[in-house]
Task: structure prediction
Amino acid sequence: FGAQYQQGSTALFQILAAGTIFVAVSSVCNAVLNVEHRSSGIVLARVILLVVTLGLTWALIPFGLVGVGIAMTAGFAASNLVYLFLFLGKSKTDDSSPVRSSETTSL
Result:
């Protein structure tokens, strides 16, 4: 494909390597939501991932492969923000703890 492709692909892999943390966190959050039977949260996060990735890819396509890498990384970062809000919202309203603060005893 040529030298220009080689230069762009190296930058792409560097950007995607930096973004793997977002992919890893996303995978764990998907598993947790799946275990909790909260599939609507998974769908919401994936829709945000799709919209951000496609929107930024369209906007950054003039930058070539680097633009695509930035768009993909930003999409996974945005989906992680959705997971953050989902988990923070659940922790604030979660009253399923078997021990209430009035029932605790001092040692």
Summary: The two ends are 71 Å apart (CA to CA). The mean pLDDT is 83. Residues 55 and 71 are 8 Å apart (CA to CA).
